[in-house]
Amino acid sequence: MQKLVGDNVVVRKLEEKDLPLLWNYRYGEENPEWKKWDAPYFELEYEPLEDYIESMKPSIEHEDCYVIEVNEKVVGSVVYYWEYQPTRWLEVGIGIYDPSYWNGGYGTEALQLWVTEIFRRFPRIARVGLTTWSGNHRMMNAAEKVGMILEGRMRKCRYYNGVYYDSIRMGVLREEWMEKKEGIEEKK
After folding, report:
1. Per DSSP, what are the bridge partners of residue 110?
2. DSSP SS3 for 126
3. Per residue in 155-177, pLDDT tens?
4. Within 10 A of 148 (CB to CB), how many other CB atoms are there?
5. What pTM was estimated for this model as a whole?
6. In 95, 116, 147, 166, which residue has its Cα 20 to 30 A from 106's Cα atom?
């Protein structure tokens, strides 16, 4: 699938032309605002543009990263990755890099579209998961709004700015997702 269309966002296939913009979101400024929420306990290691483009080419080919657009402007991305493919353990992630698009429901809508696409694309997986940390309330709220539940909390294992935070695992089962989706369609 090339494009997922929601009410306010489009989640579309990553293209090579998007890479300089995504690189700029990542490395264009020192201490970008988004990094304070996206696993800030892991250091953001600078990568030159040419190296970044080369490292992202497999994501274009495998379609494991899509971009999020609002009014035809790329504002973030969604990804999936295998925690352990032999057991069909798949996780997703989402990032809205432009802070002016935070708290507007764009991330929640993109996550909803992406999880639906992941279940469609991988008919044999039973669950889609998401890992975050207890300091990222927006991510936990978005995951909960789309139907994910708290599945695990590793207490005080993320140390950041002198404070211990929990690592949070959330997820949704295929049957829960389909039941929720059917309920939404019945209301229309």
Report:
1. none
2. coil
3. 999 999 999 999 999 999 999 99
4. 24
5. 0.91
6. 166
